[in-house]
Amino acid sequence: MHDNLYRHNIEDNNTQLKPINLFEYEKLATNALSQKVLDYYSSGAWDEVTLRDNRAAFERFKIRPRMLVDVSSRNLSTKVLGQSIQMPLLIAPMAFQRLAHQDGELATARAASIAGIGMVLSTMATYSIEDVAVAGYENTLASPQWFQLYVHRDRGLTRALIERACAAGYQALCLTVDAPVLGQRERDKRNEFTLPPGLQLANLATLSGLKIPHEGGESGLFTYFAQQLNPAMTWKDLEWVQSLSPLPLAIKGILRGDDALRAAEHGAKAVIVSNHGGRQLDSAIASIDAVSEVVAAVGNKAEVLVDGGIRRGTDILKALALGAKAVLLGRPILWGLAVAGEVGVSHVIELLRSELDVAMALSGCAEIQDIDCSLVIPARA
What we know:
It contains 15 helices and 12 strands. By secondary structure, the chain is an alpha/beta fold.
């Protein structure tokens, strides 16, 4: 669908070959981004053990395909929180997307809308809540848009963000709970990472004039978190967040069954199993390794989603077989954005859609609901 536009973009980026998988996009993105931006996007905390394990963990699960099933027609569509999506995929919340491409979150929202998948907009976006909402609804196949929230020390600021998301038509709140403080990302620390002149926290600057500092021994991002985010947040605060809007609440950053159950008991409609892409607590377990425990704990009290390490359609199949309703995709979206803007993001999504379609056919699954726990087993040692 995007071949002609894609070739034009590739020529502009001095690239000769069209990527055929997400790993090739990552390689191309290393040439398209400055070292400081590449380090910010790709780094994990401390020794990056969890970052690596997020990917390796998927290889520890093997697929047991069914045979002689009519898979002449496949349907990848599903619903998350009652909202229809054309495949079980949402774009994870990621900050500062204009570092990858000038259209940033606007391009990502348009690509998600065209593909009919969900997008979760970061609090720390470089385009505003309102502008991204408009971009996401330009297509008649407009898909769900969620807003990711960090609870700030300033409750008035938190309230204002939620009110803006509601007014702009977002369909759920995604509350990140695994970042009471910022993980120690040594590449960012060494680079003293901060936003370049001309970019700002679009959703925060308009409310309070907040900016990521441009000085100090730590990265500007670390300084911002230390000053603004609320490390005293507890389960009781979930009730306050929910009181501010009628939007369903998804809790992101859960790695334990007991925490998942608490989230559901405090009113969360979805739990996102996540270790923040390996960027917070190093040596935390891989996200996919926590899915079965979380699913068993919440039962039918909340839907379960997962992010971290997804690079193939078979990864999505495995996640769904373990009980996840859908997955969230992070870094590969940034690689597509860096390589070819909106067209690159669309192509990344299309690659995963095609891979999932083939994986389902070869596993004997004509529809998403055919994917169950009998399809996967842990690899033997």
